[in-house]
């Protein structure tokens, strides 16, 4: 039985672009203060989709989406369905894995290693917006050559 297109905007929204991984992810949520269901609900409402529309696009049931959003996870959601829902909603599937307990926040977003102050200062100088790209390359070349020379002197000494 065909669905009445007036009852669902899914037919107008379609599946265009769903197979392509998003260039960025929406709803950068704090894993510590949110549940998997809230993560999905916020992504769905940000896209302007109803639970039924999301279920139709993801090839799952309305009951499944409803259970997820209410936090009624009697068993782990199927990974493929979670990935599909995340693609549709432009959500980072790694965040879903954190909410579901498969990964830790540190595993998906490791802390940036701290550089010594002088190295950070050098990095900042090379990233200065006023620096012309050709000048940046000259400076990088100089630093690399200087480092190579220091390494040779260390080996020889």
Structural overview:
The protein has 157 residues and is an all-alpha fold. It folds into two domains: 10-108, Orthogonal Bundle (434 Repressor (Amino-terminal Domain)), CATH 1.10.260.40; 117-156. 56% of the residues lie in helices and 0% in strands. The longest helix has 24 residues, at 133-156. The relative contact order is 0.10.
In short:
With 157 residues, this protein is mainly α. Helix content is 56%, strand content 0%.
What structural keywords apply?
single chain, 157 residues, mainly alpha, 434 Repressor (Amino-terminal Domain), 2 domains, 9 helices, 0% strand, elongated, disordered N terminus
Percent range for β-strand residues: under 5%
Please state the structural category: mainly alpha
- Average pLDDT, to the nearest integer? 78
Task: Give a quick account of the main beta sheet: strands, pairing sense, barrel closure.
Answer: none
What's the architecture of the largest domain, going by CATH? Orthogonal Bundle
> What general outline do the C-alpha atoms trace?
elongated
Cα distance, first to last residue?
83 Å
Q: What proportion of the residues is helical, as a percent range?
A: 55-70%
- Detail the poorly predicted runs: 1-31
- CATH topology-level fold name of the largest domain: 434 Repressor (Amino-terminal Domain)
* Structural domain tally: 2
Task: Tally the beta strands.
Answer: 0
